[in-house]
Amino acid sequence: MTDTRRRVKVYTLNEDRQWDDRGTGHVSSGYVERLKGMSLLVRAESDGSLLLESKINPNTAYQKQQDTLIVWSEAENYDLALSFQEKAGCDEIWEKICQVQGKDPSVDITQDLVDESEEERFDDMSSPGLELPSCELSRLEEIAELVASSLPSPLRREKLALALENEGYIKKLLELFHVCEDLENIEGLHHLYEIIKGIFLLNRTALFEVMFSEECIMDVIGCLEYDPALSQPRKHREFLTKTAKFKEVIPISDPELKQKIHQTYRVQYIQDMVLPTPSVFEENMLSTLHSFIFFNKVEIVGMLQEDEKFLTDLFAQLTDEATDEEKRQELVNFLKEFCAFSQTLQPQNRDAFFKTLSNMGILPALEVILGMDDTQVRSAATDIFSYLVEYNPSMVREFVMQEAQQNDDDILLINLIIEHMICDTDPELGGAVQLMGLLRTLVDPENMLATANKTEKTEFLGFFYKHCMHVLTAPLLANTTEDKPSKDDFQTAQLLALVLELLTFCVEHHTYHIKNYIINKDILRRVLVLMASKHAFLALCALRFKRKIIGLKDEFYNRYIMKSFLFEPVVKAFLNNGSRYNLMNSAIIEMFEFIRVEDIKSLTAHVIENYWKALEDVDYVQTFKGLKLRFEQQRERQDNPKLDSMRSILRNHRYRRDARTLEDEEEMWFNTDEDDMEDGEAVVSPSDKTKNDDDIMDPISKFMERKKLKESEEKEVLLKTNLSGRQSPSFKLSLSSGTKTNLTSQSSTTNLPGSPGSPGSPGSPGSPGSVPKSTSQTAAITTKGGLVGLVDYPDDDEDDDEDEDKEDTLPLSKKAKFDS
């Protein structure tokens, strides 16, 4: 089948139900392998790019309009149209579509079963607007039906909205509302309710501006009182005019601003109280109403911000001691709502807003308010403070540091916040949780600034630990003077958990400030008293605090823990928990496992030396036995310092050396001239030659006794070290009663560069060794002070297994034997 090309424009329907021109090109039809069917193709006439590739589906409804337009829907929200330049081209493509669907080309729509809304979607895009019935009492039912029938179709909604705008129809409807109310025409009022509700769902800003004008808005609310679903009408107008009172805490002189505030309140009331809760399908239809309220709030904030006299009077009355309590509460509530409105501003405008409030003295005013006894006023002030901290914590920090130079610690703003957190009377501590979040934001180094001249972090944390930390920790210290918490009720436990959460945050994010404070004030010991609390969540908070400290692997902390025996409360809690498999059990085991895995030597020794008897029977995890093994390995290394230093050297070779450097060194090792070795001497340091047998063998005996007790009666200890990724020489130590420890390198029986390769070559069995000229390049190992053995450790088992597998395949030149 030959393709026929015709010039067309491609249109798509956008989210606003408007047709967008996608470009001009030439249309053809043909089989597309990728789509597995006959398809419509449109290529742009400008560059030949593909504007459209659409498979002709057998069940899709295509419609031909005005001889030159074909419209269809690709998906639920994706409509397409082809507008042809010539009728002949449209007819030809229409025949192709009908042929695929098995329809007669004489029809204007290929599918009969299309619901009404779909048919209306395909209405001619250029058809004339909607004609509204005359606005008369007798035709209200007809008008209501017209509005209801137009809502499902985007095109009909658009035409209806234009007709309502152009003819001033809303005001005419509101005149009919007065007539119906006077005549008590309930049926007419029910129709007006449906009409006005339908107009809201048209979602048009121009219509809202008419409906929400001063002269119309109360009548619109009146229409919405007569819901047909209710037996009695609502009394929204009565509430707005008599119950709801507009309070001017500070007189507003601008009439436009006052009118805007009234309008916003009433529209918000309509949205929240008058209109029925929109269904899932209607939610998006009220988006313009949300926007109307949003932009009104932006305007109100802007107009108030520009009125300097208004803000000056506001802050003056807030801080004036002569202001009565009721008036002050109204002022604070106004300021809170003012800040809430500011959240609608764009970032740039919000910056200007808070800068204005700061210049007006909002922080000193808040300090005065927070010192008052009225809980409602304090609660509103806390909300205002949270807006400021979230917006600009640095501004708050700067204020409190300047304030500290003039005032006592007790009346500092941050200390007031901490006191309110501690004294929160709410059983659930809702306010305390909010305040703790604000404090954490203020002490978080992540949002602190650093400039060329000063570092905010250093200055503020120095201030905080000097002036505020003692207030924060006061309830903790007061409650932990004995071995058990002096108060262990739920509310106290919740408060202490909040304090511990903040202290844990400080341990993680602050460095020497919190360390000095914890060690000097013995804070950890006091925190661990809470391990005896009957509230599991509080005991876990205390444990988490200690776990965070141990996780830092800081020896200052470790020495403090050991000196004060601060594992004792943890071990007690572990034993008291018994065999219960719960979070406490898992958390304590995890802490000890961390010490084992990270090989924190000082803590490992401390735990085993002081608490092993209490923990040795725990066998459902290997953590404590693993700690004991670590401890024994440390003791072995302490008794054999040369063993430890040798192991460090070899481990560095195995794990930390660059692979290429390693290969070079290996070549140097095995290519060392054998002539450098002198016959007949073992490599022993001069100091060793003067030692007698007892001096050398005494540590050997001790070492072997420990090995027998721990493992078995073996007499040889293998140390296998992986000198490279490819070759794994093995060193073997044999203990004998000789007066010297001879460590010689066995040479290869194969040729190496620079070596004769004969059986009697230097270093081979039966041949004397030699003293190396350069000890860094030989396999000779010297002993000083009685090197007696190299032990293997469990964490090296995997590597050792691999070494054993490889050892058999190595040439003899790459094995070094220690013998006497």
From TrEMBL:
<dbReference type="Pfam" id="PF22972">
    <property type="entry name" value="EVH1_PP4R3"/>
</dbReference>
<dbReference type="InterPro" id="IPR051137">
    <property type="entry name" value="PP4R3-like"/>
</dbReference>
<dbReference type="InterPro" id="IPR011989">
    <property type="entry name" value="ARM-like"/>
</dbReference>
<feature type="domain" description="PP4R3 EVH1-like">
    <location>
        <begin position="5"/>
        <end position="101"/>
    </location>
</feature>
<feature type="region of interest" description="Disordered">
    <location>
        <begin position="720"/>
        <end position="820"/>
    </location>
</feature>
<feature type="compositionally biased region" description="Polar residues">
    <location>
        <begin position="772"/>
        <end position="781"/>
    </location>
</feature>
<dbReference type="GO" id="GO:0030289">
    <property type="term" value="C:protein phosphatase 4 complex"/>
</dbReference>
<dbReference type="Pfam" id="PF04802">
    <property type="entry name" value="PP4R3"/>
</dbReference>
<dbReference type="InterPro" id="IPR055236">
    <property type="entry name" value="EVH1_PP4R3"/>
</dbReference>
<feature type="region of interest" description="Disordered">
    <location>
        <begin position="670"/>
        <end position="699"/>
    </location>
</feature>
<dbReference type="GO" id="GO:0072542">
    <property type="term" value="F:protein phosphatase activator activity"/>
</dbReference>
<dbReference type="InterPro" id="IPR006887">
    <property type="entry name" value="P4R3-like_central_dom"/>
</dbReference>
<feature type="compositionally biased region" description="Acidic residues">
    <location>
        <begin position="670"/>
        <end position="681"/>
    </location>
</feature>
<feature type="domain" description="Serine/threonine-protein phosphatase 4 regulatory subunit 3-like central">
    <location>
        <begin position="142"/>
        <end position="633"/>
    </location>
</feature>
<feature type="compositionally biased region" description="Acidic residues">
    <location>
        <begin position="793"/>
        <end position="807"/>
    </location>
</feature>
<feature type="compositionally biased region" description="Low complexity">
    <location>
        <begin position="739"/>
        <end position="755"/>
    </location>
</feature>
<comment type="similarity">
    <text>Belongs to the SMEK family.</text>
</comment>
<dbReference type="GO" id="GO:0006974">
    <property type="term" value="P:DNA damage response"/>
</dbReference>
<protein>
    <recommendedName>
        <fullName>SMEK homolog 1</fullName>
    </recommendedName>
</protein>
<dbReference type="InterPro" id="IPR011993">
    <property type="entry name" value="PH-like_dom_sf"/>
</dbReference>
<dbReference type="InterPro" id="IPR016024">
    <property type="entry name" value="ARM-type_fold"/>
</dbReference>
<dbReference type="GO" id="GO:0005654">
    <property type="term" value="C:nucleoplasm"/>
</dbReference>
<feature type="compositionally biased region" description="Polar residues">
    <location>
        <begin position="721"/>
        <end position="738"/>
    </location>
</feature>
